[in-house]
Structure formats: structure tokens, C-alpha cells
Amino acid sequence: MRIPIYQIDAFTNEQFKGNPAAVCPLTEWIKDDLMQKIAAENNLSETAFFVKKDNEYELRWFTPKGEVDLCGHATLASAYVICTYLDENSKDINFNTQSGLLEVSKDGGLFTLAFPSREGRKCDAPEALIKGLGKVPKEVYKSRDYMAVFDTEQDILSLELNMDELKKLDGFGVIVTAKGKEVDFVSRFFAPKAGVDEDPVTGSAHCTLVPYWKNKLNKNEFVTLQLSERGGKLYCTDLGERVKMSGEAVAYLEGYINV
């Protein structure tokens, strides 16, 4: 079996920046364990698989360790592959996923994703979170992920991370965030249980970040920066039940998997 594969750098217009995702278009679904093995072999934070059904696409995402229910950068990367390689006339793409219908629109080189809002609930900081980050956050919230809020960008950059402690948490991952110097807010994201110690740019985390910062900054539109080594900038809008996020993408690799 030959499966097409593309590697796309998402939320950037430069190669080797943003967040790389592998994208595998399929004509029909293959076995789950094979998709998981491919994702583990790719060893990227996400590998996306999709199958076209009528005028929509069924989309699934896998980390090296398991399937996830929502992923922003691999959705953007999938839309990029569709518009660039499979259907150049596509402007509006609908993906059916575990998190419901996800809409992606294309305007020039900019892709805009509409994702479900996931506002966190305030909670106490678990001991493993404090030990895992190396400092006490001023606030903690919980949705799919834990979100730890700090005072400054420097707090975010100077964390003394212990991934073994973060693995003990009951959430999928950990978001850390603070108000930005030159952007509205900054963040980082860690998901060691999923085989991703630090994710370069995390669209799904902004489903929790944006509602929080809407309340704190009293605004609906944001420019955000994820402070990973590769870095990535997102343009986000709070729409109530949905969070809109926009970014660019660039191709790095195209080829075939032989299995």
C-alpha cells in the first residue's frame, strides 16, 4: 500500500518555523493501529489522516502515543494540502471530527479555523503542576488541559520543567500563559503523556486561552505568540461558542509511505 504524505509547517510562512504536521490523504480508512504506527514513525506532534466524503472530509489526528480529539495546526496543514495539491479551487473546507464540524476558510495565503470554545474552570493548582512547572502560578484553570497563568513573559520563558511530574496530571496537556509585551498574550504548551514534551504552536490550546483573555483584557480580537523554540503567531477572535484563529502554512516535504 502506498499512502501519500505531506509535511507542512503550520502557523508560519517560513520553513523550519511554526508547527510541523504530517498529513496523509486516504481514499478510505485504514486500520487504527496502522495510523498509530505511522504517527509514531513520523514522530511529529501530530499526523492527520482524512477521507473525502461527498463535499466534506472526515479528519482524525494522532500523536506518537495516541489519537486526540482536537488539533489546530494539523487541521490547518490538512486544509493547506487540500487547497495546494488536491483541489486548488477550494476556499471553504468542512471537516467532520470527534469535536464536531470544523470549518476552515482560505483567503489568499491565510487560513482561518473556527473551533469550539473550551473555557476553563478555575481550580486549585495540583502539586504535580507546581512541581512540573517549577513555580507557583497565580491562577489555574481546567478544561481538556490545565492552564496556568503567570504575570510576565519572563515567567513563561524561565520555567524549570519536570515532564515526569506533568505526566501525573489528569488532563491531556498543560497550557502556560501571560500577558504579552508586544502581543496580547503569550503561551507555551506541554503534553508529555502524548509523547510531545513541548508543542511548537498549539491551535487547540487557544480554544481555552482566548475565552480567558477575552475576560481579562475586555476585547474580542487578539494577536498571540507561542514562545516555543520554533515560535508561532496566531490571530484569534472570540465568537462566543466558537474561537476563530488564522495563520499561514508552508510545505516542507511530499512523498509516499510504503506499508
Automatic annotation (TrEMBL):
* One Pfam entry name: PhzC-PhzF
What the entry lists under Gene3D superfamilies is as follows:
Diaminopimelate Epimerase, Chain A, domain 1
Annotated active site residues, numbered on this chain, are E46
For the keyword Isomerase, the answer is yes
**SUPFAM superfamilies from the xrefs?**
Diaminopimelate epimerase-like (SSF54506)
Q: Which GO terms describe its cellular component?
A: cytoplasm
Q: Which GO terms describe its molecular function?
A: isomerase activity
What are the protein's UniProt keywords? Isomerase
Entry's family note? Belongs to the PhzF family.
Entries under NCBIfam families matching the protein = PhzF_family
Can you name this protein? Isomerase
Species name:
Domibacillus aminovorans
